[in-house]
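Subject: Ubiquinol-cytochrome c chaperone domain-containing protein

B.,
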Amino acid sequence: MFQWLAGARRRNRRSVVDALYAQIVAAARRPRFYSDWQAPDTPLGRFEMLSVHMFLFLHRLRGAEGAARAVAQDVTDQFFHDVDHSLREMGIGDLGVPKRIKKLARMFYGRLAAYGEAVDARDEAALAEALRRNIRPETAEWNEAADLAHYILKAHDALNGLDEEALLTGRLSFAPVEGDDESD
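Prediction pasted inline below.
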């Protein structure tokens, strides 16, 4: 009987993780990011936008304990599993995937630190510069980075408005993107 209960808890947590990750991916795929705000609509550009939304989720749960911490880890694991799958779909072989995953993980965790400092300081200009450096490094100026930085601060506030129980039932609420027909 206890095995059945443990299995039910694992299945429930898996469904919560799947729901949270699906919402993160949906938020990262909003058309406005790519059309109006000029995030590159490339595999790396999509990785960057997914990283932004993973950052927002993980930043909300930083310092969490217990079930929330476990869910945050499971969502992170799902993210890297998804990155691994995407690399393989792009034709990268078994020997090249671990090296690329390691590089993308360094990039991801570097972004978490840079974005986190700017968000904690509520420094929209520093956040916009970090976004430009990471998402559009080839351009000296990316004016739309200010729009994205503004959105990130609003999304951060929206996520902080959610209680942990809502997150543990699989509900996220990112800020709306003005002028975008997509909703979370």
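The mean pLDDT is 90.

T.
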